[in-house]
Amino acid sequence: MPSGKKEGHFPGNSYYYVEGDEAPMIQSVPVETLIEETIAAYKQHHNPSLARLMKLSGFDTLEWEGSGTLVRDIRGKEYLDCIGGYGVFALGHRHPKVVEAVKDQLDKMPMSAKVFFNKPLGDLCKKISEIVPGKLQYSFIANSGTEAVEGAIKLARLSSGKGQVIHAENAFHGKTLGSLSASGRPQYKTPFEPLLPLFIQVPFGDIEAIKAATTEQTAAIILEPIQGEGGIQVPPAGYLKAVREWCDAKKILLVLDEVQTGLGRTGRWFASDYFGVVPDILILAKALGGGVMPIGAFVGTEEVWKAFKENPLIHTSTFGGNPLACRAALAAIEVMQLENLPAMAEKSGRFLTGKLNELQQKFPDIIREIRGLGLMIGVELTDAKFGGYLIPEMCKQGVLVAYTLNQPKVLRFEPPLIIRQEELERVAKAFQNALEKAKSFFAKEHSHSVR
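^ that's the sequence the OP posted. Answer follows.
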């Protein structure tokens, strides 16, 4: 060990404190230097605008280690993760059973040769068929949610022989071209027009609008059971059932995007379970990889899957269904079943929603509404400016939250489903502190502007 330095430990590394200096070093490099170098790399080689936004938002450090419900930055500060990878970390960070499964497969065959049968792929598709509702049976395994949406759109068009797809305002299905065509915020769509043809947008929750938009060329209706990036929008009572009945009457396919809502997030295995609705095609991702591997899937009934019969190679993916990701997904589903995470999410969601409702009563000038199901909770603010203050303030207090992509006035609370009640208490306390500071800050700002 270098003279004049004392050794310490940091996640995955050794570092040294220079005597008389409190600045930690990782592998003999000062932490602040590593931060500066990474931000410079973002600015010069990745995304300069994103780098500026992250610094302005107070996220000017490096994520370094995740464990359970916690994220630790390179300085060693711990944060309760209430963003949860926008649904990825249902099991928390680095769940040991998922990590163990991936390490085991890594020592065997990480990627598929694509010529022989792939046992993890077969096992995963079978397991998915056991947990999905109704007559959903066949799965295609992709690498992400947006890829799974692309595949679902292709399958719907191929199976129906029609081209029109009806989707909802404020929806979010991804940012590849087909997925973007079905999404609902012009800010992300307009720069890339023309998008795919025959995509018709209607208000979310309005069955009459769907009926009016339907034509003889309507292949499918694609919806999120609960709009995530749209601001955690729960549909009106009876809406999804009415859509299902309309699809049956008009021989239209119902595609439900449960990329964010699926696999326990809302307190049920699938959000559609709340509404008693089974789609013809179901889309999964995010939590499916157990927070360790990227993976997505679209699942269909035997009837729709017949469209793939004539040409089994009509939709393929080099990396989709790779053994590493499939082993992670199998382990993730097993953990969800053994630990009954949907039930945990329902219970924890009720507790956190109750705490947030109490804060809404105390701060009605800042919080307009609390809504959601399970641990998919949205806090709608009276003005988006409050979010710009609250998010970095929560970060300072060691709790990570974010706004929803299509609705900046809505803060999302989507922690790991394994979160404990005492941690939820900490979240509520941090939010209360942030709200009190926001109220004071904006009151002073208002008094100065009046002068």
